[in-house]
Amino acid sequence: MSKRPGLNIFSGNSNRPLAEEICKGIGITLGEAVVNSFPDGESFVKINENVRGSDVYLIQSTCPPTNHHLMELLIMIDAARRASANRITAVIPFYGYARQDRKDQPRVPITAKLVANLLVAAGANRVLTMDLHSQQIQGFFDIPVDHLYASPVFFNYFSKLNKDNLVVCSPDVGGMKMAAAYADTIGAALGLVAKKRTNATTVEAISVVGDVKDRDILLVDDITETAGTLTAAAKILREHGARTIRAAVSHCILNEVAVERLKSGLIDELITTNSTPIDTKGLPITVLSVAGLLGEAIMRIHQNESVTSLFKIKGF
Hints:
alpha/beta; Rossmann fold; 7-stranded mixed beta sheet; 28% helix; 26% strand; globular
């Protein structure tokens, strides 16, 4: 691999393996930078390459520890700006705080908008991200946002499955639009699980819409952290006679609660991407790579080409 004049890619500490895979895929060397912390917890960044006049891409998912990784990204952007980079693109495979995108109760912030303001204030000229929790977050930015979907990667995997007996289900009402798009593309039936959230980590599924008896179920969602929504939906689907249950989730940030829930065996396979680091811990988790998708997007943006064709689905 070699350097490409005018193009520099750097990585924070949130998901360096993904950054390295992206660079390997497009045939360039990941840039050299120091990104670490002082003993008191303050983040420190030093870019060890000349980026004056360059097109700079900073790869960083804002996954746990979210605040630390977000601060790293902001400091990396500031460092690149002060080093006279021509254009700075924040590549955020997983955009943290995306679920705080509206005021759903009195006296709460819209933190997704605050994060957008911080990225722009730090000096980002463009954002490249994937599967935002809600589409309107793109409008929180006053700079261009390239919003990719992981669905082409998922559909390439699904093309190997038997789709004759498949039902695509949304584990909640909010994901119905995504489930309908998946079902339409795959040519499968559509279902819905209605849920009621009792607290931040506990969800109760209350009813099922659609015929799921003796069918293979594909649950689709954009993010899971405790796996509460997925396992609650899987439980009620099992009670209604579902034969097998798979779940396709773009971003998995699995904590210990999620691991215990996935050990229950309610979900036969959890399919996700490497937008965040995944430790499968012996669980039935299949991790698909989005490095090719992000790498192609980076090269097209660098060359001022359209990214529209990246949304095309092959094999369906």
